[in-house]
Amino acid sequence: MEFQSIEDLPFENVIAIDFEFCGYDGDLKVPVCLVASNLRTGETTYYWQDELLSMQSPPFDVGEDSLIVSYFASAELSMFRVLKWEIPIHIFDLFTEFRCMTNGQRLLNGNGLIGALSYFDLLKFEPHHKDLMRDLIQTGGPWSLAQQADILDYCADDVRALSPLLTAMLNKKPLTYEQLGQALFRGRYMAAVSAMEYTGIPIDLPLLKELKIHWSGIKRQLIESGDEGYGVYEGQAFKIDLFEDYLKRNEIAWPRLESGRLDLKKDTFKNISKIEPTIYPLHQLKRTISELNMNNLSVGQDARNRCLLSPFSSKTGRNQPSNTKLIFGPAKWLRGLIKPKKGYSIAYCDWVSQEIAIAAALSDDKNLWEAYNSGDPYIAFAIHAGLVPNDATKATHTNIRDQCKQVVLGTLYGMTAHGISKRAKIHKIKANELLQRHREAYRVFWSWAERNMNKGLLGEALFTCFGWQIRVDSGESPKANTFLNWPMQAHGAEMMRLACCLATEGGLKICAPIHDALLLEAPIELMSDHLARLKQYMNEASEIILGDNKICRVDTEVFNYPNRYMDKKGEDMWLRVTTILDGLKA
Length: 586
Known about the structure:
Layout: E1 2-3, E2 13-22, E3 30-38, E4 44-48, H1 49-54, E5 66-70, H2 73-82, E6 91-93, H3 94-102, H4 113-119, H5 127-138, H6 145-172, E7 175-176, H7 177-199, E8 201-202, H8 205-213, H9 215-226, E9 233-234, E10 237-238, H10 240-249, H11 266-275, H12 279-291, E11 304-305, E12 344-351, H13 354-363, H14 366-373, H15 377-384, H16 398-411, H17 417-424, H18 428-441, H19 443-457, E13 462-463, E14 469-470, H20 480-505, E15 509-514, E16 517-523, H21 527-546, E17 554-560, H22 571-585
Parallel strand pairs: 2-5, 5-6
Antiparallel strand pairs: 1-7, 2-3, 3-4, 8-11, 9-10, 12-16, 12-17, 13-14, 15-16
Helix pairs in contact: 2-7, 5-6, 7-20, 9-12, 9-22, 11-12, 13-14, 13-20, 14-15, 15-16, 16-17, 16-18, 17-18, 19-20, 20-21
């Protein structure tokens, strides 16, 4: 059986909803109004702010018999949490389904509600009017009776759009029972997103304020001390010609743009700093001076870092939060601002070598899984390739392990021998030899990976186990590596989503998802128990994704108050910044 219309959906109530809300970045938002429409009966109800704040529960059924429909449901569900309402059991998010349906296509009008309506030729209101109303709502009131009526009507516009949009999507792609379940799982994750955005990341707000006050002086002294040996700054300006002179003096090769100018993009600096350790301090300094704006961090009055997690925004289905608003986006040293409040702990929990585990399990390459399961897949590859004896370890064969690590990780992204030779600092001939040995050691993986890549390049859809898909438009010329790595990244995203659902529904306070890790908060005396539960949820999620009783290992690191979170790669810069700050304050 397929569900081709709203009438076919197996729910007694199908209720479309939309909230309007206001508030400052980082703070919990305040509901302004709610419009709800029962798509079975056509009845539409309107609720203003004072009514909502007096309600103890939603004004409609959110139980087993009801399907709640919205566009970008995490925003609506955040209002449920602010109002202390019960979270709906079944959520159908038209944003996630439109993203899934069109992932890989070039959309003329984006993937917001207007973009989706435009895609199906359903657009019936002017985007300019939408911007004007958003500005009015964000003033926070008070609003005149006429303005309240306009805001409610504007909110109702979005709700009125959901029924024809849902109908058009079901007409274009009717859902099987399995696909409906997959869509409801994506809606379930949006509820988990609302929980994590509601919790936020604890920040040392007094220290952040001091950094803002003294930031100009800190930057000046960072350049004075950090530019020694480089000589690439004039004042606070990074000079390309001086940097080019530095590269020539030190015989460092650097990529160039088609114009012939040095490629100074952030990712280029990041990649080169992995090859040339001397570049890393300069990379950190450049990011700190040129990219970091303390005022962009989205921190609320309650000392919580909150921003839109932007779920399903990448082609792999991963979150794509703002790199300037979320504390994990800017330079790593800034993460030292993460600090549990008094009496609390935070724990950073990440899957170990997640993409290797996924590649081994999904390809069913027993040799690759054995390498992952050994605890050190890089030494395992070296042993399998006959490069080291069977009793070799990280300590006994560090250099060869490092070379093999670049090969094992690089193959997941389609890295060439040229790229590996640079990353591993070996000759290209040696890199070619290591790549060939990897192909021989893990033939099953390579056969599976190349099948996926060829399918994607031919315009066929690739799917995750829970139905997230990618398909490129005909006539497009995508990069082959997009499809080589997509199954690992996309299934990693599915693993993350499932773990977030289990953890938030289990009552754990997850502050944020960070790529392949979760940040957990708990009272110090409860952290041990909460951490054990989170690890169990993460193990369960990985076992479901990987199958055959395979589990992706989890590493944890706990920070108890008054200690702060610290990324090891950012420790040196943190010490420099805080030392300068202490001097300026004195």
